[in-house]
Amino acid sequence: MAHLHANVSISEHLTFAEHFFMWLFKEKLNADNSMSDEDRNPHEKYIIGVITMTFAMINFLITITVTINLLRIKSMQNSFGYLNISHGIGDSLVLLIFILWYAPMIIIGSEIDQTLVALKIAHFTAICMCGANHSAIFIAAGRYNALVHPFKYSLVFTRRRTMIFIAIAWATAFGHHCLSFFHTLCGEFLSWFVDLCYGLVMIILIGGTDIATFYQMRKAKQVRTLSDKHS
């Protein structure tokens, strides 16, 4: 009975996405293969916390420096610069929260991460992350447009439209994470869209657009090489 109870307890805390990957890789998480407290390194939380904080601080310093320079450089006061500033602000806020909240909570091992305050911080982190991701979509679209339709770029990505794009990026980020998802059947179902499907869509939109841009650059280079040979 204890073994069955352990299986049920573990299974109840798995998200829909985790169930999907368990099915995909034919692996089941149960009391036999789950890690117990005795198996854990006693210094594990300190190691993970320090590593998390170190990488977060390095990335934060780089990101905030680039973002500040984008604000200061006059030549970057354009659509591309504004979108990158939006992306940088989102990334900087996420990294700052990791430095000031998540990494210390890992090191301390406090139960405060289960409180309402922690939930709201998690929501804010998710909003900032999505705001940065959505800004990256417009950045990728702008790069592609500038390469394929250079004469239309200045007409499409005007300053006014860029501000609208940024507003859309952050409004959709807020709308995406304005609700709380708990360990319920509905919450697990919604986690499929929030975790897995959303990530796949971001990869397709951003990565796909960047791949298309790279393809167009390669194609243009080949055309130029052929024209140089004929000339």
From TrEMBL:
Which residue ranges run through the membrane? 46-71, 121-141, 162-183, 189-215
Q: Which GO terms describe its cellular component?
A: membrane
Its main localization is membrane
Question: G-protein coupled receptors family 1 profile domain location, by residue?
Answer: 58-174
Q: Which domain of life is it from?
A: Eukaryota
Query: What InterPro entries does the database record attribute to this sequence?
Result: 7TM_GPCR_serpentine_rcpt_Srx, GPCR_Rhodpsn_7TM
Q: Where in the cell is it found?
A: Membrane
Name of the protein in its database record: D(2) dopamine receptor A
Task: Identify the coding gene.
Answer: drd2-a
